[in-house]
What we know:
The protein is mainly α. The protein contains five helices and no strands.
Amino acid sequence: MDINPLITDLIKYKxxxxxxxxxxxxxxxxxxxxxxxASHIAEIKVGKVTDNPFQQVASLYCLSLHDxxxxxxxxxxxxxxxxxxxxxxxxxxNFESDII
Length: 100
């Protein structure tokens, strides 16, 4: 069974990423909270973020862009609903659709 290293790191850095999602929430930028998370993962792994953090993360983890976007969005939604908003929110974040 292969373990997705991106998911492993999302869990490993959950506390840092929780802060990033809260920042997006506070700036009323939830629709791009996934981009905040991708940028932070790239910064953690290589210390520098490119103009397209999703593509950078895909390259770092040797994953498809589709997988990276899906994993980061699922993680961001889960953290937002369970750790930030608790019982107050049941809807997923409506992310900006343009990634590339």
